[in-house]
Amino acid sequence: RKEVEQDPGPFNVPEGATVAFNCTYSNSASQSFFWYRQDCRKEPKLLMSVYSSGNEDGRFTAQLNRASQYISLLIRDSKLSDSATYLCASHNTNAGKSTFGDGTTLTVKP
Amino acid sequence: NAGVTQTPKFQVLKTGQSMTLQCAQDMNHEYMSWYRQDPGMGLRLIHYSVGAGITDQGEVPNGYNVSRSTTEDFPLRLLSAAPSQTSVYFCASSQRPDRDNSPLHFGNGTRLTVT
To answer: Does B101 reach chain A within 8 Å, measured CB to CB?
Structure first.
């Protein structure tokens, strides 16, 4: 079993739709969690950190449920520019390692 | 502020050749790491370093060596290239690996093809 598992996707949604991505992690030693965005043939870039209390940045909301070992990302009012691959990542502070899911590809269509 | 700089951007090797992928960061980050990304397989950790003089193996270390003689540089060496090492390689750094909310900063990547 992979340490971080994501919805395989792909997600194809119309502009304006709300879309949710889910991610589960198996290593209970993981302490920090992040969502990264990766455009085609580019490097991943931090989208947002994920906290148990929830984290909102404009149209994006990230949530962490430690009891269920589950991370989510909600995108409201999707834009064409949101089309990308979204990667969730867990970070084990003690081991100093980050582990990534395989990514979920989102295509927003006019 | 350059961030994380990787060279070269593209490289073609023949089977059995060796080469070094360069990675440098100017953010005084303690943590540096190398990932490879293959289609449909996400990012897999090759080697990482929590500070100068300290390195450790990740998920897929075989066929690769690293060293960390300075805080800034973390080169990745392919000892004897194989077609299975055809991939996109990303170097990444973060401020403090022992702290929460210390996200990774990635370089632009090196696209390696081994024939």
So the answer is: yes
